[in-house]
Every structure is written in C-alpha cells, then in structure tokens.
C-alpha cells in the first residue's frame, strides 16, 4: 500500500505545479493590441471638420474682382461654386462701341500700310529717274534744270513715303488704345480656384 501512495503524491504535486505555472503565465501575459476593423466599400469620400475654437476660416489665396470701369453687364460666364482656370473669362461688360473703335483703327492701319507701299514704290521710281536724268545731263543730252526737277520730284516722293510710316504708327497706337478699353470691360480669373459670392459685412 505505501508504495502506491508515493507515485500519487508525485502526480498531484506535478499537477499543482502545472496549474500554478499556467496561472502565472495567464496573469502576466502581455495584453493584446486593440484593432478597429472596417469593411472596405465603394462610395463618396467625405470629410468632417469639427470646430473646437471660435473663429473664421479663410482661403489662403483669394481676390475680390470688379470691373475697372462701370457699365452694363453683357455676359456672366460662371456661377458660384464653379472651378475656373487662370485667365478664364468670368464677366464681360457691354463694349460694342469700343470694339467698333478698334475695328476702325485696324482698317486705318490697313489703309496706311497700303498707302505706304504705293508711295514708296513711286519714290523708288522717282529716285531711279533722277539718277538716269543726272547721267543724261553729264552726257550733255538734257539740261541741268531737268535734272534738278527730277531730283526735287524724287525727294518729294521719298518724303511722302516717310510720312506714311508715321500714319502707320499712329494707327497702331489707336488700336492699342481701343484694345485697352475693351480689356477693361472683361474680368478674367487671376488664378485657378473656385467662384464664391462676396458678402459685405454690416454692423
């Protein structure tokens, strides 16, 4: 009988020791990290901003736009919330009178250029005629008076040719002035962004 009790004691002692070891491991094991799981699905991307401070949100780049000159609005090409690119036309004022002035100046420029071609061709022919007459004078075929008349005619033609250059420059300046007037009636986007309505604060 005693030989049987001794193995039982050893087995009981082993079981108790195992239980103590398991309990020690259970209470001293590292805690597992908490992980939030989310299901992946398609849909609109949304963002929520929580305001924890009193204040005003302002864009980092903004511009209050208004026509340089007063007038009647002819066309509004955008509306609030539209995305625009730099240089895109936003608003146009009525400017048919300024456009007519620009068109008239362009026609005057075309006429001045055509007149210059004509007068300069005549000036070149007169210069050649004067040179030929001078050669005939040197050979004794014509009088010196005729050579002087030919030279005077050549100089007069050349002066007319030079005067048309001034007419061309004046017409070009008139076009620039008319174009500047038209540009003042057009508002373009100074940079890429979103159109918003300006509200004046009162009180």
Report on the structure:
The structure is a single chain. The chain is mainly alpha-helical. Among the domains are: 68-94 and 187-203, OB fold (Dihydrolipoamide Acetyltransferase, E2P), CATH 2.40.50; 107-184. It has helices at residues 2-28, 96-139, 144-183; strands spanning 73-76, 83-84, 89-93, 186-188, 193-194. It has a three-stranded antiparallel beta sheet with strand order 1-3-4, with no helix packed on it. Strands 2-5 form a two-stranded antiparallel sheet. The chain is elongated.
Features:
mainly alpha; 5 strands; single chain; OB fold (Dihydrolipoamide Acetyltransferase, E2P); two-stranded antiparallel ribbon; 203 residues; 8% strand
Helix content: 40-55%
Low-pLDDT runs: none
The secondary-structure element order is HEEEHHEE
Q: Alpha-carbon distance between the termini?
A: 106 Å
Give the spatial strand order of the biggest sheet: 1-3-4
Oligomeric state of the chains in view: single chain
What would you call the structural class?
mainly alpha
Q: In angstroms, what is the radius of gyration? A: 48 Å
Q: What's the story with the biggest beta sheet?
A: 3 strands, antiparallel
Label the overall shape.
elongated
């Amino acid at each position: 009988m005693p030989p049987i009790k001794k193995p039982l004691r050893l087995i009981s002692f082993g079981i108790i020791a195992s239980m103590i070891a398991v309990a020690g491991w259970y209470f001293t094991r590292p805690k597992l990290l908490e992980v939030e799981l989310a299901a992946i699905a398609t849909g609109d991307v949304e963002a929520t901003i929580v305001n924890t401070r009193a204040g005003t949100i302002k864009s980092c780049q903004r511009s209050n736009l208004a026509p340089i000159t007063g007038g009647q609005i002819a066309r509004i090409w955008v509306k609030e919330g539209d995305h625009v690119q730099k240089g895109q036309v936003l608003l146009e004022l009525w400017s048919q009178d300024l456009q007519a002035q620009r068109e008239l100046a362009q026609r005057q420029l075309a006429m001045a250029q055509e007149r210059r071609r004509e007068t300069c061709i005549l000036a070149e022919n007169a210069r050649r005629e004067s040179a030929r007459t001078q050669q005939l004078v040197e050979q004794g075929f014509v009088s010196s008076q005729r050579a002087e008349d030919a030279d005077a005619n050549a100089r007069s033609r050349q002066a007319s040719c030079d005067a048309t250059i001034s007419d061309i420059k004046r017409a070009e300046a008139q076009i620039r002035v008319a174009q500047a007037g038209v540009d003042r009636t057009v508002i373009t986007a100074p940079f890429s962004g979103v159109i918003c309505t300006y509200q004046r604060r009162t009180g």
